[in-house]
Design a protein that fits this description.
By secondary structure, this protein is of the alpha/beta class. Helix content is 21%, strand content 26%. It contains 6 helices and 9 strands, in the order E-H-E-E-E-E-H-H-E-H-H-E-H-E-E.
Amino acid sequence: MKRRIIKIDGDKCSGCGLCAAACHEGAIEMRDGKALLLREDYCDGLGNCLPLCPTGAIDFEEKETAGTGSPETNLQTGSSLSQWPVQIKLAPVNAPYFEGADLLISADCCAYAYGNFHNDFMKDRITLIGCPKLDGIDYSEKLTAILRTNKIRSVTVTRMEVPCCGGIERAAVNAFKSCGRIIPWQEIVITTCGERAEATII
């Protein structure tokens, strides 16, 4: 898979650390006084670090990255979306489709990274998606209200392996702790190559 990622010229790098601080994905690390692209698969290719580099040591490159994605990529036959809206910040707190539902709370990138996302995760579930990085909000309060107000049967959380996706996990965990109900839930992590990395079942 060819992707746009950053490259860092070590000779130009002054070691200021501004790029590492700006990288929400945790792809850049400071080592021996120089910035280093630690994980190419974590780089989102947006270049938030570029304008902060005072020496012009960072640029983009097109690069073939490891991984071919999920082997089930071509199995999908149609949409499994069963309600609208799907954005967490737009979803109502109380809607008929929440009653007795199996709920999917997902980082929105998961559906693009994992080829058979509809069949494997969305089918027979009510889907809520969000990106804590781009939305710039904490979903905890909204998710707590949804879990507290409705008789949710189970919750599945899907997130990407990159650190910025931890926001969706933290919001879900905070909602579970605050809603006053015991609800079976599982979390599934998707790699940047589109494969299941790990699952946690509670």
